[in-house]
Amino acid sequence: MGRLLDNYHYAVAAVLFCTGFYSVIMRPNIIKKIIGLNIMETSVFLLLVSLGWKEGGIAPIHAGGAEAASMVNPLPQALILTGIVVAVSTTAVALSLVILLYRQYGTLDVDRLMREEELEVPAAGPEGGEG
Amino acid sequence: MGAYRHFPILIITVPLVTAVLMPALSHRRERLCMPLAAAALSASTVLTFLLYRVIRPAADCFLSYRLGGWEPPWGIEIKVDFAGLFMLSVICSVSLLCLVYSRKYISKEVEPGKAFAYYSLFLLLSAAMLGFTATGDVFNMFVFMEILALSSYALVAVTGRRDAVRAAFKYLLMGAPSSIMVLLAIALLYSSTGSLNMAHLKELLAEGAYSRVVFASLVFMIMGFGVKAALFPLHGWLPDAHSIAPSPISAMLSGLVVEVAVFALLRLFFTVYGAASGAVSGTSEALGVTAAAGVLFGGVMAVLQKDFKMMIAYSTVSHIGYIALGISIMNEQALTGALYHLLDHGLAKGCFFLCAGAFIYERDYRRIEQLKGASRRMPLTCAAFAVAALSVIGIPPTSGFISKWYLIWGSVAGGKYLYAAVYLIGSILAATYCLRVIYYMFFLPPQPGTWEGGGEAPVLMLVPAWVLSLGTLLMGALSFVIIGRVQEAAGLLLR
Questions:
Q1: Cα torsion at B304, B306, B309, B313 (round to 10°)?
Q2: What is the pLDDT of residues B172-213, one digit of tens each?
Q3: A–B CB contacts, 8 A cutoff, strictly below
C-alpha cells in the first residue's frame, strides 16, 4: 500500500487510460470518442512526465554551476512536447473527418452510422447484381 | 564510404520536403504535381538501390546517420542495415509505380483543384514509410508512424464520398488508440531502461533481468502495431478502408503500409528486445496462434466475398498472417521466408489492386461476377492479374513460391508441423479465391449487357501493373541472386 501511495501518479495515469479507452469503445457519440482519445493521450503524457520528475529538482541548465544530480530529466519533457503535437494533429484530422461525416450523414451517432452502412452494402456495385 | 553516408537521410527528406513544398509550388500549375512527385520518389529509389553497393549482410556493415551530429545513445540515429535496405527498396519501387498509375486514375476520382493535395499526401505517406523503416530510435519510429497513419487516414477519405469518409473514420478510431498504446509501450520501455536507441536498448535489455515492465511494454507494442498491421483479431478496419480507398492508395495501403507495421514488429522482436529474451519467447507463441488464425480467417473470408477489392483486402489479412507466423517461428529459414514474403506481398497485392483499379476506371465494375469474360476486352489487365495470382497462390517460378518454400521449411525445421499445415491450407484457400476470378475472366462468357465495346486500360495504368506482375515472376525465377543475402540478414537478426 505504501508503494502505491508513493507512486500515486502511476495509478492516476492507469485510471485515466482506462477511462479514455472506455469512452473510445463504449460511447456511441463520435465527439465523446474523440474526447476519450485525448484522455488516453493525456494519461500517457502524465506517465512520461512523472518519470522525469524529481522533488525540488531544477531546470537542467549547466551555466551557473548547478549540480547535475539536482536537475530533472529533460528528455521525457521533450518527448511529451512532440507527443502533444502529434496528439493535436490526430485530433485535428479526426474532427475534420467528423465534419465531413456530419455533412454526409447528418448524425454523430455511431449506431445510426452502422445502420446506414448496412443499408448501403447491397447497393455497393453499380448494377446491384445478386446482392 | 564517402558520399554514401548521407544517403539514408536523403532518401527520407527528399520526398518529405517535396511533399511540404507541393501545395506552394503547384497551386496554379497542377500538371506539374505528378512529375515533381515522381522526380522526388525516383531520386529516393535511385539512392536506395545505390546503397546495395556498400551494404552487405554482415554484423558491422550498416550505414548510420546521426541527426544534428549527436552521438547515438543520446541523439536520433537513422540506421540502414541489409534487412532495412531490402524493405526500403520494396517501398520505393512499389510507391513509385503506384504514383505513375495515379496520374490517370486520380483525374477521375479526385475533383480538379484537389490533385495537389493527393500528391502531397502520397509523398508524405511514402516518406513516412521510408523513415519508419530506416530509423534506429524507437521514439522517432513513433513519430514517423503517426505521419504515416495521419496521411493514410486522409488518403482513404480523399474522394470525399460518403462511404470513403466513413471508412476513414473507422480506420482512425482503431488506428489512434493503437498509436497511443505504442507511445505507452515506449514510455514503459524508457522507464525501465532510460534509453530510446534500438541498439542501445538491446544491450541494456540483455544485461538487465527480465522484468514485468519490459514484458508489458512488448505486449502493448504488439497490440499497437498489430492494429496497424491488421493482425487477425485487430483487422476490423482493413477491409473497408482498403476496398473503398482509390485503387492506387489501396495498393499502397495493402502492399506497403500494413507491411511496414509487420516489419516494425520484426525490428522490435529481433533488434530491440532480442530473440533470446524471455519477453519475446513469451509472446511469440501467442503471436503465432493469432497469425495462424488470421491466415485461415482471411482466406475463408476472401473466398466468400462478392466485391473484387473486398476479396483482395481479405487476402491481405491472410498474407499478413503468413509473415507474422514466419516471424513467430524464430528460425533462420522462416525469417528468410518472412522477409522474402514482404517483397512478394508488396509486388503481388500491389498488382491486384492496380488491376482492380483498371476495371473500375474503365467500366466501374467492382463485383467479381461482372468480371466474367473480361479477357475479351481487357486481355492485358487480366493477364497481369493472372500472373500475380500465381504468386499469391505460390506456384513456381514466382516469388510467392520461394517465400512459402522457406516459410514451410522453417516451420518443419522448427518442429511446428501444424503451422506448415496452416501455410498449405492458406495456399489452397488462395487458390480457391484466385482461380475463381481467373476462371470468370478467361473461360466464362460475359453477362448480358457487360463488356460490349470499349477496350484496354490506358498505357500509364497497364505499365505499373505489368511491372509488378513481371516483378513477381523475376524475383521468383532469379531469386538465387538475392536469397542467399536475405538468408544471411535473417541469421544476423536472430543473433
A1: -20
A2: 999 999 999 999 999 999 988 888 888 888 888 887 766 788
A3: 96
For chain B, what is the domain count?
1
| Residue of chain A with shortest Cα separation from B160 | A100
Percent of chain B whose pLDDT exceeds 70: 99
User: pLDDT confidence of A127, banded at 50, 70, 90?
Assistant: very low
In what helix (H) or strand (E) does residue B295 lie, and over which residues does it extend? helix B278-304
Buried b (16+ CB within 10 A) or exposed e, A13-46: beebbeebbebbeeeeebeebbbbbbbbbbbbbb
Distance between CA A53 and CA B177 in Å, rounded? 26
Q: Which among A93, A100, A101 is the nearest to B150, CB-wise?
A: A93
> What CATH class does A2-53+72-123 carry?
mainly alpha
Which range marks the domain in which residue B425 is found? 2-494
- Exposure string over B261-283, b if 16+ CB within 10 A, otherwise e: bbbbbbbbbbbbbbbebebbeeb
Size of chain B in residues: 495
pLDDT at A131: 33
- Indicate whether A29 pLDDT > 70: yes
Phi, psi at B223, each rounded to 5°:
-65, -45
Q: Out of B153, B183, B370, name the one closest to residue A83 (CB).
A: B183
- The string of pLDDT tens digits covering residues B34-70 is 888 999 999 999 999 999 888 888 877 888 888 887 8
| Cα dihedral: B159, B162, B167, B173 (round 10) | 110
Q: B368 — phi, psi (to 5°)?
A: -65, -40
Outline where B161-268 has alpha helix (H): 162-193, 198-207, 212-229, 238-244, 247-252, 258-267
Determine the residue type at B273. Y
**Cα–Cα distance between B334 and B365 in angstroms, integer?**
39
Flag if A125 and B307 touch (Cβ within 8 Å): yes
The contact set of A with B (CB < 8 A) is 17, 21, 24, 30, 33, 37, 40-41, 44, 47-48, 51, 75-76, 79, 82-83, 86, 89-90, 93-94, 97-98, 100-101, 104-105, 113, 116-117, 120, 124-127, 129-130
Q: What are the backbone dihedrals phi and psi of residue B307, each rounded to the nearest 5 degrees, phi first?
A: -90, 135
Q: Which residues of A touch B169 (CB under 8 A)?
A: 30, 94, 97-98, 101
Tens of pLDDT, residue by residue over B204-252, are: 888 776 678 888 899 999 999 999 999 988 888 898 899 899 999 999 9
Supply the ipTM of this predicted assembly: 0.89
Q: Which three cell numbers stand for residue B159?
A: 474522394
Nearest-angstrom CA–CA distance, B294 and B278: 25
